[in-house]
């Protein structure tokens, strides 16, 4: 079966919520005309993975927005970290943009109820809708970044070998690791 936008929002919200899954709902409460709470949502919560794992995932998902070859660079929000992933199903039947900031999680699906190819020119239409809405929602909110947790460390990695870069490695990037999981040093570019 197909995954619904609500299910995707729950999954991406879990990463944004530091590994805690909160069952999605369409309302938090309903008040009567006199201001009494008529109905309140009872969302189920459960811890799915650690804050450290969530931290690594957040920084991986920043790459489509900030990375050199990012597929969602147009989803950036000035001064606020954005984690996002684009998606396309076979035959161009569905277009997705799933993402979050330190403030909100949002998922946008673009397609037809029946399987029909989406013809468009340029950027992912789901991403353009996502970006437009999220930029408006974040207007005037204070700048905010994803924080690094104590169980996560950064390292410079050799892009050619996938191992810790040495001074001789020229093609490098910054990577996030759970403490104690960094790879060995690169031997591909050792000095001769």
Total beta strands: 9
Largest sheet: 3 strands, antiparallel
Roughly what percent helix? 10-25%
Helix/strand/pairing class, anyone?
alpha+beta
Portion in beta strands: 15-25%
Query: How far is the N terminus from the C terminus?
Result: 56 Å
Low-confidence segments? none
Name the overall outline.
globular
Query: C-alpha Rg, in Å?
Result: 20 Å
Number of helices: 3
Side-by-side strand order of the widest sheet: 5-6-7
Query: What would the average pLDDT be, to the nearest integer?
Result: 90
Order of helices and strands: HEEEEHEEEHEE
Describe, in short, the structure shown.
The protein is α+β, with helices and mostly antiparallel strands and 192 residues long.
What does the secondary structure layout of this molecule look like, with pairings?
Layout: H1 5-16, E1 20-22, E2 29-31, E3 37-40, E4 45-47, H2 51-66, E5 83-88, E6 94-100, E7 105-111, H3 125-137, E8 152-158, E9 172-178
Antiparallel strand pairs: 1-4, 2-3, 5-6, 6-7, 8-9
